[in-house]
Amino acid sequence: MFSLKVLIVEDDSVSALLLKRALEKNNHEIIGIADSGEMALQILEEEPAEIVMMDINLSGELDGIKTTEIINEKFDIPVVYLSASSDAETLNKVVGTNPSAYVIKPFNIRELNMVIELAIFKDRKEKELQKLNNELEEKVKQRTAELYEANKELTKALEKEREINELKSRIVLNVSHGFKTPLTSILSSAQLLQLYAEKDHPFKQKIAKHAMKIENSVRALNNLLTSVLFFGKADANKMEYKPKKMFVQAFIKEVLDTVKAGVENNVKIKTELGDLPKVIVSDSDLLYQVFENLLSNAVKYSKDEGEVKFVLNYEDGQLIAKIQDKGIGIPKGEQDQLYDRFFRAHNVGIVEGSGLGLSIVKKCLEVLKGDITFTSEVGKGTTFHVKIPVD
Question: What global pTM score does this model have?
Fold first, then answer.
């Protein structure tokens, strides 16, 4: 992820320190920490920032929402709201300031990084579109005397703008459709949790049930956002191989913990690790995408209370993995479409999914110079074999 100059506006010193450490861990530069809107504006006058992390409730006369309105007017910097509140009144006020993103506390580092990248992406695209509009106006002025040529250029520019707007509409439609179900579940469950917490009766089972719904919905939303951002980079030819030293056992544990946290059908993952090196050099983000998507798919499409086998070995400078399930399998006539974006086999039934996971795996392996093959039979399961060169 790229390095940014960040201003933190947070009146809780502990929260501000934790946020500072999380951002610095990802190579961001913190230009200052303000506990009030007035201090934030003063810092921005003295040193420019590329993004502002804004708490809504601040000390001083200016709250986060009013401070953001001033920042929008004077500095044109993307603002990401941080708040522990998600009630309708707060959300209505936030929407009015056109924020770049909104994060509910507490948040994890992966979620925070994803939101920051999405906010910067949104801000840059909006500015690029504004730049295009400004250039269009200038061309019209310059070519007024040459009416015919001016009309030709205007027609081209309008057509380009129409294509951009259609593309933006399609993206918004697809992403919004994916957001609708999990966000509705988050909202209704959060409201029920709040209601239960206000009563004097024990609602432990209901609270646990709705807390799980929130967790699963947020995970689905994060996965969808991650996939959208991934292909945004891929289509812009910004997929780069960034190798670094990584501890193999810690990496495998992180992948397995993430996959197991999302298991809803009581499927067990049986892991067999060979003689693996302690440290390897590779791109941990790309490797994570490969193994997390393959294991998540294997679990998702397995039968209830089934088993997924994950075997990982190291031979001749390569990680060699096998992910095997005994689930629904892939119809033979559809196997050549398996890595296509948005493809889902006709036998997936009611199992939810975006159809992006395996296309992400394929793209990551292209960058890693790895290889993937599979065998599958309907009703008996699927086995993927992966080879990835590492240093």
Answer: 0.47
